Amino acid sequence: MTSSxxxxxxxxxxxxxxxxxxWPKAEKILTARVSSGDIYVDWEDGRVSRFQALWLREQCPCxxxxxxxxxxxxxxxxxxxxxVQAKICVLxxxxxxxxxxxxxxxxxxxxxxxxxxNCYDDWARTGRETGKPTWDKDFxxxxxxxxxxxxxxxxxxxxxxxxxxxxxxxxxxxxxxxGTVEKVANRxxxxxxxxxxxxxxxxxxxxxxxxAYLSVELPLHMDLPTRETPPGLQFLHCIVNDAEGGESLxxxxxxxxxxxxxxxxxxxxxxTTVDYxxxxxALDCDYRTAGPLIRLxxxxxxxxxxxxxxxxxxxxHLPHDQLKKALEARHHLMRLVKEDRxxxxxxxxxxxxxxxxxxxxxxxxxxxxxxxxxxxxxxCYLDRDDLHSALNMQAxxxxxxxxxxxxxx
Length: 409
What we know:
Blueprint: H1 3-10, E1 29-35, E2 38-43, E3 48-51, H2 53-58, E4 86-91, E5 97-101, E6 107-110, H3 112-118, H4 122-128, E7 143-145, H5 146-151, H6 153-166, E8 168-172, H7 180-185, E9 200-202, E10 218-221, E11 233-241, E12 244-245, E13 248-252, H8 253-263, H9 265-271, E14 276-279, E15 288-291, E16 294-296, E17 302-305, H10 320-337, E18 343-346, E19 353-357, E20 361-365, E21 368-369, E22 375-382, H11 384-408
Parallel strand pairs: 7-8
Antiparallel strand pairs: 1-2, 2-3, 4-5, 5-6, 8-19, 9-22, 10-20, 11-19, 11-22, 12-21, 13-18, 13-20, 14-15, 16-17
């Protein structure tokens, strides 16, 4: 989001929410009450929200509790009693929830739109659990015009949504000038440097410090599994690609994980729980780490893959019988990843940029032959955090525009 966009938003930032966001009053609060220490809100659409008192007190948006400038908390939340209770709970003339607290008489005023957006009842949590679809060889990669993404915030938003949802997108009609990938990446956030630099060229060269800089076939993999937190996003911009070979392949590690869980649950258990070590062996650096090949979140959903066959290190922390099972499980997964049913394949054209989730969409390249032509890609990394921040900012902008439009009619 540009500085001008931020200025447009800042003039309607309110001090009646504990964040820098804009929330529409989509549903009206009919009544509010206190019961067994919790605050209950009855909504116009028949829904009921139940707020725990301490949770609500911590989020008091007043300027004594949150900074007018940063909207960060001004008090130490541990100074609050864990047994804080609501003394009075009413609605004001604007439909805001007013709560007076028992211990110090502090009064808090809560925006109904903020309450609705942040309630955590079963119905609300279920509504937010959209899930991300996985894909296989029949996946049609979402494609966007590069100029539109660079110039238009609505097209930027659509691209960001697709990149977050599917983990793989294509941009077309980009310039073939060097530096283009940096301009596109900066629409999301700051480029993350690595031992390959901030911007790197994927080209065959004699002083290669990675297999990517050779012309050999690269198996499906993610980049930098040797890092404690590998980059979340990778961009590759095709500048020239007229050599024979050099086709790009992608596979959804989350889709493979889903299939593995159904067909070989014992293997799935191992690759999601055992820490596999990785190490790079370059002359100028020596990164090492370990982690599961598929990492799950608290609900058991895949959130990260660490799949790479050419940066593995010896497993030394397992006893003999467990080591055998771990090696066999890794081989099972790696063979599965290579199956055609999971892979999409195409040849990047000059002026095309592929943007993908490095910790989800595994990428590969067929061998190419430098004596038949040239192949040059320019790439960079970003973090997922920047993608999520950019998405949140664009969603905020769209809510702001919707509120302004409704107020004008």
